[in-house]
Amino acid sequence: MKKIAAADVFFTPEHREQIEKTAAECGYTVDFYPDGHLPPERAAEYEIVYGCCLPGELKAAANLKWFCCSFAGVDIYMDESIYPHPGVLLSNSSGAYGITIAEHIIMVTLMLLRRMPEFEKVVRERGWLRTLPMRSICGSSITILGTGDIGTNFAVRARALGAKAVRGVRRTQKAGDPAYDAMYTFAELDSVLPKTEILVMALPGTPETHHILSRERIALLPEGAYVVNVGRGSAIDQEALMEALNGGHLAGAALDVMVPEPLPKDHPLWDTKNLLLTPHISGNMSLGITCDRDVALFCEDLKNFASGKKLKRFVDRSLGY
Amino acid sequence: MKKIAAADVFFTPEHREQIEKTAAECGYTVDFYPDGHLPPERAAEYEIVYGCCLPGELKAAANLKWFCCSFAGVDIYMDESIYPHPGVLLSNSSGAYGITIAEHIIMVTLMLLRRMPEFEKVVRERGWLRTLPMRSICGSSITILGTGDIGTNFAVRARALGAKAVRGVRRTQKAGDPAYDAMYTFAELDSVLPKTEILVMALPGTPETHHILSRERIALLPEGAYVVNVGRGSAIDQEALMEALNGGHLAGAALDVMVPEPLPKDHPLWDTKNLLLTPHISGNMSLGITCDRDVALFCEDLKNFASGKKLKRFVDRSLGY
User: Fold this and answer.
1) pLDDT tens for residues B9-37?
2) Which InterPro entries is this protein grouped with (chains A, B) (predicted)?
């Protein structure tokens, strides 16, 4: 019997049952590793690995055919040398994180627009203050850089909250998605930034997205704009962002991702003005619906794999997505 | 020429122009008092007062026919003795605050569900923590107590965010509003609370709503429920709420209103577990669209008043709403 290693920390008894049932239908048995790690002495038993095991743990899986990562962002699994052989297929769990990360984006955007960090400071000191100027998602011009599952889940919600315009910017041309008021390509980004009040970034970490929000592009954003990043820290020129916040060109930013992570205690990001930092939690697996969706996506692709079809969430390591 | 006093702190030149234009059409001139106060020596000149002047300032307005309060909640203007004569009409600005307060409710609800107070504490100490259980608005059962402008603006948004059920509870029976999955009366509240994961309260301060969320009703909420109050602090038995939070029956609460306001430095609310306090800011007038809407509502009712029609936002002081 062919074998699957399911190595992740979030599986409930219901998840295990669902994975085992689908595996049996496809001719596999499943071993679970609830600490999320693939033990080196057993790694060679598995044709399929699903979960969050470390990049360095895959090398020992000499008979591995497919690694299904339970994350959406798989940039740390791009290095070809971590695999036992070049034929190992890689897939991600894009589609599991849209709801939770969209809710995170709404929360931090409202916290910035409604001056919550300042009000919270007043409350911590048991004070009372009622008069800081606020803004609203309603009526705002929003640009979403990265229009995958996360960006699109947020776009739908931003429009429901009354945003004036929700523009999507993506790598390549694509037919208009009804979630967006207009769709642009990376090449058109410079023309979209000057009319952007809130820039939301949900991009994978690839060579193409590295520092895509450069110093020059930060300057193209209007005075008083906001930046929210939930994709990868590498997408922003962090030095330039800190300057734009400390100098007042930007009204605020919320970073759930940054370089490096975890952030060292002496890093200047901690002290940057109007910056709301969160420790890469926007997509964490503690939200039940995210976990349920992650398992469902794996089971769907397991059926594809077993019947010789293309994996739906296949990642091409030569392209980085 | 008959005269209007417009006494509030938020008027822009555009607001003044709009008020003056409508006033002229109705046969009035306007004096503006940008500090929000009606000077006693001039109060008798005005037939109409619009704004946020203090209850004690109205008595001197011997010729007052109509006071249009720029707030939505007018409980502090209910006492008959503050008026120069019983014939003074009172109206409020219900309708101006729905968007801003709905955004506040979404923000604080997500902050509670996503454990932001705890993550923010970690970030303040420059730490890194990724694993607190989170919940989502998506899939949650929400009950909204008070289905006016504010409750309904939130209901529409909660459904767009994927809430499983959004129930409205109001004073009297009313035909179903499409913003809600179901509509109940105050008399049915006890049957709705046990299936409520998130209780949102947006009620005016009236004798009927005083302590409507009593100790007994807090106990009817399921273990792990959340309470958000943006109406009036008097609607909650605050002692019982603190006990339910400190004892762990409730998972969290967000209060923008409380008793008393401002909260004294030694009040036990400051130290209550899983309580997110804000200093009555959810509807403050610093949000442009709120101010614009407030002025538009006054101008609409000014036309009604001048042509002898009923005021659209008339408040019956004998009923309290």
Assistant:
1) 999 999 999 999 999 999 999 999 999 99
2) D-isomer_DH_NAD-bd, NAD(P)-bd_dom_sf
b/e map of A31-52 (b: 16 or more CB within 10 Å)?
A: ebbeebbbeeeebebbebbbbb
A104 to B114: CB separation less than 8 angstroms, yes or no = yes
Please provide the average confidence, as pLDDT, over all residues in chain B.
Answer: 95
Domains identified in chain B and CATH numbers:
2-96+287-306 (3.40.50.720), 98-277 (3.40.50.720)
Closest partner CB to A280 (pick from B130, B132, B277): B130
H/E stretch holding B239 reads: helix B238-246
Which amino acid is residue A147, in one-letter code? T
**pLDDT digit string (tens) for A8-56?**
999 999 999 999 999 999 999 999 999 999 999 999 999 999 999 999 9
Please answer whether residues B91 and B71 qualify as being in contact, where contact means their C-beta atoms are separated by less than 8 angstroms: no
Report whether the peptide linkage leading into residue B39 is cis, meaning its omega lies within 30 degrees of zero: no
Beta strands in chain B (DSSP E): 2-7, 28-32, 48-51, 66-69, 89-91, 141-145, 165-170, 182-185, 198-201, 225-229, 250-255, 275-277
Decide if B141 contacts B196 (C-beta within 8 A).
Answer: yes
Distance of CA B275 to the CA centre of its chain: 19
B277 chain-A contacts, CB cut-off 8 A: 123
Compute the nearest-CA separation of A86 from chain B (Å).
33
One of B280, B293, B300, B313 is an active-site residue; which one?
B280
ipTM value of the model? 0.88
